Design the sequence.
């Protein structure tokens, strides 16, 4: 076998705590005492010594709020080496929080440093537009977060200009929690070709921060209240 043909796929030495290897995989530099919470089943490879603890106590405390019907979908990863995570070929985005806070759709959350503060929270102001409350995972502090996207996402800086940024909630991956947010109803043009009922709602964001949007409008995997 000509190994030069595979040389372009060989991983480079880690340059950051979390970084991409290609578009659909995250590479995490693991060190003792610097553990990571990761989506259960997302490990695809690792180098060195890495241990896994499914449904750890910190996650069990949130299990009753993580409304997937399947319990808490996180595992704790610890050890020394390099860890590779992926989620069925979805694109991966790595974000380094520096005393900031982020609201993430739970199904788009791939991994995050355990020293970050986190919890399941209700997205305020959504019930009157969505018909029921929308639940996200709030993450804050200093550390790394890896998100997934169904296709290459767009990251919109809402701090540029005075115009508001409007997003379809079903395509929304994450946003800076200190952004101002409001709902808006409108006619959805897709209903003219048989995809919708005609009325849709969007979320408007303004202020200093960013919004991550994926090229998908599948809402079936959202964290929603039971019943």
Sequence:
């Amino acid at each position: 076998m000509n190994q030069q043909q595979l040389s372009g796929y060989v991983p480079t030495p880690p340059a950051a705590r979390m970084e991409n290897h290609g578009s659909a995989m995250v590479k995490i530099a693991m060190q003792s005492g610097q553990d990571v919470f990761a989506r259960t089943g997302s490990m695809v490879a690792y180098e060195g010594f890495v241990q896994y603890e499914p449904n750890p106590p910190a996650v069990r405390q949130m299990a009753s709020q993580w409304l997937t019907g399947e319990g808490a979908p996180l595992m704790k990863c610890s050890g020394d080496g390099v860890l590779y995570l992926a989620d069925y070929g979805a694109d991966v985005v790595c974000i380094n929080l520096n005393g900031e806070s982020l609201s993430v759709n739970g199904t788009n959350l791939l991994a995050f440093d355990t020293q970050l503060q986190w919890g399941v929270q209700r997205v305020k102001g959504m019930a009157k537009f969505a018909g029921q409350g929308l639940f996200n995972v709030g993450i804050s502090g200093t550390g790394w977060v890896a998100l997934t996207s169904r296709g290459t996402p767009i990251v919109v800086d809402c701090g540029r200009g005075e115009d508001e940024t409007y997003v379809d909630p079903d395509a929304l991956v994450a946003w800076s929690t200190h952004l101002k947010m409001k709902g808006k109803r409108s006619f959805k043009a897709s209903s003219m070709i048989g995809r919708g009922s005609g009325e849709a709602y969007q979320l408007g964001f303004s202020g200093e921060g960013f919004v991550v949007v994926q090229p998908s409008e599948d809402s079936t995997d959202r964290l929603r209240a039971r019943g």
Remarks:
- DSSP finds two helices and 16 strands in the chain.
- The CA atoms of residues 24 and 88 lie 8 Å apart.
